[in-house]
Amino acid sequence: MNKKSNKIINDLVIEAANDGIIAVDQNGKIVLFNKAASLMTGISQKKAMKAHVKEVLPETGLMDVIASKKRQVNQAMKFPNGISILTTRMPLYYEDQCIGAFSIFKDTTQIEKMAAKMTDLQRMKEMLESIIQSSDEAISVVDEKGNGMVINPAYSRLTGLQEKDIIGKPAHTDIAEGSSMHMKVLETGKSFRRVPMRVGPSHKEVLVNVSPIIAGGMLKGSVGILQDVSELRELTKELERTRQRLRTLEAKYTFEDIVGKSEALRVSIEQAKLSADLPVTILLRGDSGTGKELFAHAIHNASARRYDKFVRVNCAAIPETLIESELFGYEKGAFSGADPRGKKGLFEEAAQGTIFLDEIGELSFSAQSKLLRVLQEKEVVRVGGVKSIAVEARVIAATNQPLEKAVKEGTFREDLYYRLQRMPITVPSLSERKEDIYELSYYFLERINQEYGRSVTTISPPAVSYLSGYYWPGNVRELENILGRAVITMGPQEKIMEKHHLPVLEADKPAPLQMSAFNLQTEGLEEQVNKIEAEAVLHALKICGGNKTQAARHLKISLRTLYNKMQKHKIE
Ligand SMILES: Nc1ncnc2c1ncn2[C@@H]1O[C@H](COP(=O)(O)OP(=O)(O)OP(=O)(O)O)[C@@H](O)[C@H]1O
């Protein structure tokens, strides 16, 4: 290869190089400016060649190199067009004489951008990690193969499992009962919510929400959030207790609110008014929905105790295991799961007010004994305690059960029965006072109008006589419900309730239960049995007009079991 061809090759290589190359002579005139240099600086090769470097690219610092004769390696700098470069600059020598300088530079803009992105990603990752670690929700993450990747301290607290037990281990490692939802997510790519399972060595009951982690359109893993069911249960129970307490702490009605002029009702009201200030326990008797609670409110409000509390306790709705501690309170450490500070019972809570014991026929035998003692001695002893606490509250009890039968069968204490029977007041059933239906209907229409924003002003005589022909197993409560339903079926402008607005009311015996068809293919036996049970309970309540005692009798179960079933199937 001769000198000439050598030069041609050199020129071609320089031109094709990815790095920018600029060379200047000892005066600073640009003598070499390759294509990459042009692309990076945005200056055309034509303009750059022969121009003085100070005019077009003073930032290259080549004049300094000529002056100092020093090489500078890997210097970072920026061109005016924003391109970042890394440059190496050197003086050019020929026969020991500096004849110029040159610079080779690389475009580092992309690398810088990537580095910034990496820093952002790193920051984001650290942020996410600290959110996960400090979250009160128990979180577990698995990778696309189903191996544990991340758990947080809340997860360890809930399950009792540590990172060493989970990280890198298969997704089912933490499961005590149930199948891995993480694996289900990885198999289906779908989310699942509120799946019950048990986890960890202590078989902790949890509800799990799981979702796929999708990155760049690919399934990369699964994230699960575990909720402690026992905590949820405790909260729900507490809410229920608070609700019940709120409902119980005021007596809304007075004798003025008891509608009806029938002789049967008038006698009961007279008796109740007379007993209001007598220092005796009252027993309100009568079918479900006749207005016993209304009477209890009215008696309290007519007594000297009206400015004190009215505490209502539905003895059938409180679980048997809790009734004694609810009524009489408990001392600290009385039983596991109890408030460690101990708790006042409802008798103490009622103080100088009234305690209304609804469904008293449902009290357990042992609670009956304690109640008798309270009525006789006028004092309570908290569960797990020894100290007697004076009871000043007045007791009004109510039942829709034939207590005499329960006494005979040995399920209700005879001595308690006689104690309660000193002042019994029977609230008549609606079928014994059908003449009150007219007045009651107008009273309820007014209430319903207010509640639903309607203006039904009249009920036609045929509609009233139709209502009077019915046997009203659910009493006044059923009448209120039927009128409410009828108003909903009426047009918004209709003002007169006619017979056709009312549902079909069977004059006498109920129709047999028609079971709906169940989908045997998709539902398991347990689901089917549950549905049938819910339907049977609903049907019994319907044909008994919402009268729970009758419905329980119809189903041949105790009233307490009926309450449990209603709660289970969320039947109001
Ligand atoms: N004479 C009445 N005047 C006005 N409203 C009444 C009358 N009797 C009952 N009610 C209403 O009917 C509904 C049922 O009454 P209440 O709850 O007092 O019945 P109850 O006999 O205590 O029923 P249960 O035994 O099922 O607890 C309530 O909404 C109540 O306000």
TrEMBL record:
SUPFAM superfamilies: Homeodomain-like, P-loop containing nucleoside triphosphate hydrolases, PYP-like sensor domain (PAS domain). InterPro entries: AAA+_ATPase, AAA_lid_NorR, Homeodomain-like_sf, HTH_Fis, P-loop_NTPase, PAS, PAS-like_dom_sf, PAS_fold. Keywords: ATP-binding, Coiled coil, Nucleotide-binding, Transcription, Transcription regulation. It holds the Pfam family PAS. Gene3D superfamilies: 1.10.8.60, Homeodomain-like, P-loop containing nucleotide triphosphate hydrolases, PAS domain. Residues 258-488 form the Sigma-54 factor interaction domain. One of its GO terms (molecular function) is sequence-specific DNA binding. Residues 225-252 form a coiled coil. NCBIfam families: sensory_box. This is PAS domain S-box-containing protein.
